[in-house]
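Entry type: protein chain
Record version: 2
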Amino acid sequence: MASSKTSIYAALAANLLIAVTKFVAGGISNSAAMVSEGVHSLVDTVNELFLLLGLARSKKLPDATHPFGYGKELYFWSFIVSIMIFGLGGGVSIYQGIAHIIKPEALGDPTINYWVLSLSIVFEGASLIVAVKQFNQVRGDRPFWQAVVRSKDPSSFLVLFEDAAAVAGLFVVMICVYLSHRFNQPYIDGVASLLVGLILIVVSAILARESRSLLMGEGVSTQTRDKICRIVENDQDVVKVMHILSTYQSPSEVLLMLIVAFNEKMDTSDINVAIDRIRDQVKAEFKFVRFVVIQPESLEHHVLWNDESY
């Protein structure tokens, strides 16, 4: 979490500094692309604040109304961030772009745009480097996309995608600003705004997909399930693990439910002892498994239930 906060603070500082200068430059040069970039940076600034809010609220202790804690607050606010990128960032940029393509406005002096864009690339690039370094620490040796899909901490890749989209958008705007003045075609400025909007919508769709999966109750990986099953079935009193149910409550907290068939000769006291032993073994092996619920069930009942379900 600390590493996630580092990249969030870096992005927040960069976007806050850049947003105002982009709006000023866009107003002076009468550039729709620069105004769209200003909107982009402003939305990113608000997004970082939402992520920090989600991180803070996810740390609240469990209470009577939320016995498993508030970890999913982070997933909720991450999903809000992806919607913000789509609605405010992408939507406004596309609207601005189409409006200026249909009705181009006279171009102003582009000098200030080049200065602002160059400085923005430096600041956003520095933020992106921080985000990449933090994400690489999390992903280890895994391929990039696999690390994104398997990550349970959306704050680790949200900032990375935001910064990457920002840097890509800045280069698109700089190229289009140059072309619009080089060939005296004001509508190209609108094309830049449209392209920035499309970049943001693609990024928001990717982020929304990953955040939604976590918010809806994503469970542990198949490899982890198999390892848990082996640990439990290696216990001397266990006949079979019939079901493993799990869901991430936060990036570092998993709720695990095991439906287990124990030896039929065991009484209630013996089963309780076995449950405590198995719970301790699982939690010792997997530090992120915070809650373990073990439900005993007879093997005959399991077979009968499966037959009737068909």
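Comment: The chain has a mean pLDDT of 84.
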